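During the reporting period the student researcher (J.K.) took over the structure-prediction task from the postdoctoral fellow and processed the backlog of single-chain submissions. One of the processed entries is reproduced below for the supervisory committee.
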Amino acid sequence: MMRANRRELMAGAGAVALTAVTASAARAAAAAFPASATPLPLSAVRLRPSEFATAVEVNRAYLHRLSPDRLLHNFRKYAGLEPKAPIYGGWESDTIAGHTLGHYMTALVLTWQQTGDPEMKRRADYIVDELAQAQAKRGNGYVGGLGRKRKDGTIVDGEEIFPEIMKGEIRSGGFDLNGAWSPLYTVHKLFAGLLDVHMAWGNRKALAVVEGLGGYFERVFAALTPAQVQEVLGCEYGGLSESYAEMYAQTKDRRWLKMAELIYDNRVLDPLARKEDKLANFHANTQVPKLIGLARIHEVTNGDPAKATAARFFWDTVTQHHSYVIGGNADREYFSAPDTIADHITEQTCEHCNTYNMLKLTRHLWSWQPDGALFDFYERAHLNHTMAAHDPRTGGFTYMTPLLSGAERGYSTTDDDAFWCCVGSGMEAHAKHGESIFWQGKDGTFFVNLYIPADADWAARRAKVRLETPYPYGDTATLTFDKVASGRFPVALRVPGWAAGKARVTVNGEATTPVFARGYAIVTRRWKAGDAVAITLPMELRTESTPGDADTIALLHGPIVLAADLGPVETKWDSPDPALVGANLLAGFTPAAAPATYATRGVVRPQDMTFVPFYRQSQRRSAVYFKHFSDAAWASEEAAYNAEQARRRDIAARSVDTMFLGEMQPERDHNLTSAESYPVTYRGRQGRDVRSGGFMEFSMKTRPGPLILQATYWGGERGRDFDILVDNVKVATQHLDEDRPGKFFDVDYPLPEALTRGKSSVKVRFVPHDRNTAGPVFGVRLYTAKAGAAA
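J.K. obtained the following structure tokens:
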């Protein structure tokens, strides 16, 4: 097998003629392709038994376990009403409290649509009633659960920041706005949940609440100058523009469209409208909802083509230059430079919220112009990332899905310990696995975009359809019309890019020659009840290089990303990263008895391994990416490669705590406090510096014995001096100058054992000398000294 580049596969999926159809017939089919399409309603689709149906049921049980009254705690408390239940922990006990309730409302709606469970509707209506009561008690249209942390550390009702903002008192560090954590992000989740409840079954009270809330923020933004609007939008605001556009779609009140168009981040969106990739070092999930907002505005106005251009350019750029093989993107929540994935294979890759939102954006783009390449990405990310981010035993969710060899996924473990953003997007994602299987074109074409077993009612043809398939472990999917209003129309079955030239189609068991166009096998005929059309997509093993590095590769079986099985999570992985060696790698892989599973012989170093579907490795350790060496290159590189791997593993094994400076969640986890200190990004790495007169301080865990504090700096800095203190004891004065140009370097500071003895944590403080800067510092690690080393 030749090595396949995913970008080439996806870009070419809609253009390759797969059988001996004439070029003129293919061109005619492409020209006649429907200009737009819509999905069958989720309520019209019922999943047949599969892992996807299991995920929906596991998630439904999780939603049942959650308490609406606990999620409503702050909404009642801050409105002056007595809470009915104690607040949840995790993020719900921080200033971002309330975001989960919005996610939960949407998940309830989706689960009701997907399964018909009446308890989902009852809970959603109950929440709306509670929110209406809290809103009425406040009397100004506002309702919310978000908090604001005052200087003394107390958390109070977050609404108090908005009058300050209206006066022009705006203080933001990117995720903090006047002491509240991404408050407009939290507000957006509430908007979205209320709009979903109204749209699903016409709950008028939900619309009234969201319009009251919309009016409140209309007044907030009306008080700001254009420059102040941009200052506010410098703090993460989620998909608030999308929600205002949806309010306009549901009410036709142009006030809301005006608000949707006002919420536009010039710094991020203008370059994308010009087709410029300026994404490096931007927080990824902050940006994706902005493009979804542009897409929705474009849809409800049939307007500005620049909005559609920006959305499509962003999608192309992220999927082709910033995405990992499983479809996720971002390292430690941030985009890196384009085509540098191989430099960012870490334990914090692929935040789930990013992929959740990229799938939403994909649906918008595909509905404008159906193209199989769009759903090649959708299938890749949905199967390999979304499914991997869900623990099928417990219903827990990952925040990141790590691709570093041997890393543990780290699912949320109880209903009370996390409530990360990705718990919220996770409960939505696993409520709706039937939403993108079947679509209908404006011209009457019936599309099958995902091969997930399901039954559906197609109202436009008074049809009942049945899709049966063992895909992605079997190669054939069969669509049967159990009932249909007889007539002539096209059925379009997606042909993934990796199957180009190899798809076979039958109608009622007889081979047929479909027309292939835009990544689809199209059969047009007069369909009647009992007719069945089947597509066979041969599953074969292939390799795929990372964008920008041909020698960092992954393996796939059909749509499934494979991983080397490194053992159970209970067993620590401390071996060198496996590598692949040889000119004909695939010859060393042999299919095993289990589907999509391969044994290797002679091509993996340091030893043969078994390759299995990555997404199923919820309780296993995995290797997904491999450096590829020729036999000659491996002979010369093996010693250096293993030595570097051993050095990294040694430091990692002895690490007690690591601080990723300049990154939202690690800084919160380590209780960072600072003055005159700012996040920085350089050469793709996040960090933080401190200006003269300021400081930064954060906590780090310790353990008994001699410890070493390690800080990472960039060479070539202008001369600067600063002190490093541990629990207010100076342990070093650091001088930086241009003595190490062109690379990052580490400095070790052995700590006196007396400084950490008997302590579970210490506070590390960086203080610049007068008229100097401390740092930038690109990370701090505390690790144990080797046995026998003197502190």
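The committee noted the following: Residues 631-654 form the longest helix (24 residues).
J.K. will present the remaining backlog at the next meeting.
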